[in-house]
């Protein structure tokens, strides 16, 4: 019976490139989440107290929602 080697070492630098790309992807995702929260907070700050009350919020809740 013949045996085949199915695992091989990664080429030189492949892990470094993978980690770099992964770091960029994580940074991009963090930026996307931050920007989404910023836009939400900005939109909520534009609402009047009456409008906020209609959706069950007060001014103090806006910062907590953005997080």
From TrEMBL:
Domain YjiS-like as annotated: residue spans = 29-63
**What InterPro entries has UniProt attached to this entry?**
YjiS-like
Source superkingdom: Bacteria
This chain's protein is named DUF1127 domain-containing protein
